[in-house]
Structure formats: C-alpha cells, structure tokens
Amino acid sequence: MVRTFEELVAEAESVSVDGWDFSWLDGRATEERPSWGYSRLVAERMAQASAALDVETGGGEVLAGVPRLAPLTVATESWPPNVALATERLRPRGVAVVATGDERRLPFGDGAFDLVTSRHPVTTWWEEISRVLQPGGTYFSQQVGPRTAIEVTEFFMGPQPVGSGRDPERARAVAEAAGLEVRDLRLESLRMVFHDIGAVIYFLRKVIWIVPGFTVDHYRTELKALHDRIQADGPFLAHTTRFLIEARKPA
C-alpha cells in the first residue's frame, strides 16, 4: 500500500532520534560503508591498548561492539539523551561515560590514554587530543568528509559555498600543528539513497548539521516537492564522504 505524504511525515516525526543507531531506516534508505571497516580496526587497536578514550561516543554503539576493550576504557558524550543511552549500554562492560559540555577541554589529565578514538566527531579538538595522549599513543578516527550529503542540503537550502572545514588535508595540517604525526589518511565518496520522504525527515532530524535548524513545518513545501519527485522518478540519490585518520604522538 502506498502511503500518503502526510502519513509518512507523521511517522517520521514521531520516532525517537536518540542515539546513533540508524536501523529505523532499514528498507527505506541505504548508505554505502567505507571499505576500511572502522569498527573492526577500532577493535584491533582496542585489544592492544591499556587505557582508551572514545570521544563523542553517541549512544555507545561502537564501543558496545568491540569484543575486547582496554582494561581502562572511558567515553565522553555531550548530548544528554545519548549520555543516558551510552551509560545504559556501556556500564555493564565497565565503561564510564562522562558527560561533557561545549567547552574545548577534555576532563582528563595529561597523558592519560594510549588510545583515543572517535567516530564522526562534530569537532576534533586536536590540541586536547594531543594533550591527553601518552607519548607513543594513537588517535584513530572516522570523520565526516567535505560536502557530505550536499545534494540534500542544496535541495532545501539552495547552492552552498565551495570548500569545507572538513577537508582531510586540513585535518592533517591541524593535527601536525598540535604535535601529532599523521600515519594514515584516506577519503572515500559513498552513495546514499532515500526511498521515501519519511527517511529524509528522519535523517535530517538525526543528523542536524545537514540542514541546520530543520523542522518539518519550516520546510514543508520543499518536503512535499521532494516527496512528489520520489514518487514520480524513484529514489533520491545523494553522496556522503568519509575520511579515516590515524595520528601518533611522538614518543
């Protein structure tokens, strides 16, 4: 049965967007995954670490899937609903979840960790990463790359300026300026396909930087136009970019 625009909107507005689990989109949207397999690589590094920190852990989804955590593993998260989810998920594994604010400082001492990880951080505080790493320690992160989902952004907000603060070469330069040695840096462009307007709404409610300030009421005209386009022409295609960066603090 084909559902109406209003039915799809009502459903997508009612579902929770807490945490960093996108399983609600199963069958409604797809996104290619980077070839390197971030979770597997984190697990390999975590098994060798003695003290690890996961920055911006979301709902703790990545750490929860790591078979063997470091003997001391800590996570930080700033969004209160995610703090609660991550705590519930990670406490049974002995992981402390520390609630943080917007201040540009990690609440840990110098050289506290030999491994710092982060998947899709909003902002990477490179000087802080360097400070809390032990000499010889590693920062390992998968990050959102330049012009991610630009097709979605421009559909709702019009043409956007060329260039991005999420350029991987800029990340390299800032990491090196903070005293880290970049050991690995890779970038991939990946397909993202939306099969209905409900999937688009859910995505924009959850990934809030794609269309800043998004609400259904504000963008109802554009949403209806995109719904009609999907109905007439098929799924809406966009592209994401991801980059992997591994940096080491000199011994």
TrEMBL record:
Single Gene Ontology MF annotation: S-adenosylmethionine-dependent methyltransferase activity
Organism: Streptosporangium roseum (strain ATCC 12428 / DSM 43021 / JCM 3005 / KCTC 9067 / NCIMB 10171 / NRRL 2505 / NI 9100)
Domain Methyltransferase type: 53-140
SUPFAM superfamilies, per database record: S-adenosyl-L-methionine-dependent methyltransferases
Alphabetical list of Pfam families matching this protein: Methyltransf_11
InterPro entries: 23S_rRNA_MeTrnsfrase_RlmA, Methyltransf_11, SAM-dependent_MTases_sf
Database matches in Gene3D superfamilies: Vaccinia Virus protein VP39
Record protein name field: Methyltransferase type 11 domain-containing protein
Highest taxon listed in the record's lineage: Bacteria
